[in-house]
Amino acid sequence: TLRSTRLPLLPRGVLSAELLGEARLLPMSELLAGRLLRADARGLPFRDRSFRSVLLLFSSFGYFGEVGDERVLDELTRVLQPRGAAWIDLMNPARVRATLVPVSQRQVGGRTLREVRRLEDGGRRVIKDLYLSGGHEPERHWREDVRMYERAEMLTLAGKRGLSVRKVFGSYRGEPHEEKSDRLLLWLERA
Prior knowledge:
10 strands, disordered N terminus, alpha+beta, 191 residues, globular
C-alpha cells in the first residue's frame, strides 16, 4: 500500500499565492516558516539533485500545455537525487469522462459557487468555469483548464526522463489502477 513506502515528507513546498495564505492560518503554522514558497513548477528555484522525494498532488499537473507539462517533468527530474522517488497524483481520464457532471452548484461561505464543466480536445482536456456570486462581494469568475494524461502517456513521458515506474495505484488506499479507478497515482524513481 501507499503507507508502506515510508517516503519522507517534502522539506519544502511550492504553493500558489492562495494556498500560501491558507498555510499561514494553519495551527502550528510556525513549523512551516521558511519551508513554503511560491514558484513556477516549470523552473524550480532549487539546486540539481536537492530532494530525495518530490510530490505532485491533487492534479497539479496538466495546466501548462503539453510543452509546459513536459518542462514540469524535466524540473521534477532535475531536482531529484539519483534513486529519488517521485509521486504524481493525476485525475483518471477514463473516470472523469464517464462521470463528468456538466453543471453543479453549492454554497460556500454564504455565497453560491456554480461550476460548469466540459471536455475538449477529443476528451483530453477538462475545462471548468467557476462563478462565485452572492454576498457583499462582486461576482468572481475563473477557469481551470487541465490536460488529462493517460497512464501510457505518463509512463512514456517519465521514461524519456530516466524515471522508472515503481508502482501505479488507482487510489490512496493502494488499489491497482484500472479504468474505473478514482485516481492515477504514479510512484516513479529516478535512475
